[in-house]
């Protein structure tokens, strides 16, 4: 188990939580969570960084036997980060990609967004989280999507009723009211894509 191996290896090298955290560019609190098992799904790149800092291999750190047979690199891809998207009131979403993020290869996404605000906390999406979006112009009712309203963008749960020409963009925080669009108002709304994953800023 990585938490056990991690703590044992750190102590064997005489490193403090702070020293190990500094080596891999994270916080003392995060290393503590790794060691006590609060965070068990450690990103592959962090496992590699930990192994390097602890002068061992990822396979040994993970407690796997036969490093070459059991440990494989998870492919990753570079996704454009499309500005910031509102999780409170809609804000402008930059049309130019200013930076990039790199998720694991198993995430089927086309771009990502940095969430802003607290309207989606019920879906465990907090201010500063990175949300991965698969580009598509429609989603199923109840799914979370990145939506552009005129020149502004927001992240909301979508409910569309074509027979009523009605679209509801629902937040996940009771202090915010749903956004409702009817008839010709729908012309001002465009779905950018479906939210398929998120990466917490706490990690």
Overview of the molecule:
This protein has 203 residues and is an alpha+beta fold. It is built from six helices and ten strands. Strand 8 and strand 9 (179-182) form a beta hairpin. Helix 2 (17-24) packs across helix 3. The longest helix is centred in the N-terminal third of the chain and has 11 residues, at 2-12. 24% of the residues are buried.
A few lines on this structure:
By secondary structure, the protein is an alpha+beta fold. It has helices at residues 2-12, 17-24, 28-36, 44-53, 58-62, 67-70, and strands at residues 79-86, 91-92, 99-101, 111-116, 130-135, 144-149, 152-161, 166-170, 179-182, 189-199.
Give the SSE map:
Layout: H1 2-12, H2 17-24, H3 28-36, H4 44-53, H5 58-62, H6 67-70, E1 79-86, E2 91-92, E3 99-101, E4 111-116, E5 130-135, E6 144-149, E7 152-161, E8 166-170, E9 179-182, E10 189-199
Helix pairs in contact: 2-3
List keywords for this structure.
10-stranded mixed beta sheet; 6 helices; elongated; alpha+beta; 203 residues; 434 Repressor (Amino-terminal Domain); 2 domains; Umud Fragment, subunit A
Q: Per the principal axes of the C-alpha atoms, what is the gross shape?
A: elongated
Q: What is the CATH third-level topology name of the largest domain?
A: Umud Fragment, subunit A
Averaged pLDDT: 81
CATH superfamily of the largest domain: Umud Fragment, subunit A
């Amino acid at each position: 188990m990585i938490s056990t191996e991690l703590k044992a290896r750190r102590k064997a090298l005489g490193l403090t939580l702070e020293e190990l955290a500094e080596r891999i560019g994270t916080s003392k609190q995060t290393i503590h969570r790794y060691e006590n098992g609060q965070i068990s799904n450690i990103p592959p790149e962090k496992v590699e960084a930990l192994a390097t800092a602890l002068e061992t291999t990822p396979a040994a750190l993970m407690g796997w036997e036969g490093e070459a047979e059991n440990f494989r690199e998870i492919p990753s891809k570079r996704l454009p980060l499309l500005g910031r998207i509102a999780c409170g009131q809609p804000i402008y979403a930059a049309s130019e990609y200013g930076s990039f993020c790199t998720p694991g290869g198993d995430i089927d996404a086309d771009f990502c967004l940095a969430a802003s605000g607290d309207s989606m906390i019920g879906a465990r999406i907090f201010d500063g989280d990175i949300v991965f979006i698969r580009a598509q112009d429609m989603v199923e009712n109840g799914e979370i999507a990145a939506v552009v309203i005129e020149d502004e963008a927001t992240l909301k749960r979508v409910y569309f009723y074509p027979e009523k020409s009605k679209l509801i963009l629902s937040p996940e925080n009771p202090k915010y009211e749903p956004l409702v669009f009817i008839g010709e108002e729908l012309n001002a709304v465009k779905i950018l894509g479906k939210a398929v994953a998120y990466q917490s800023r706490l990690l």
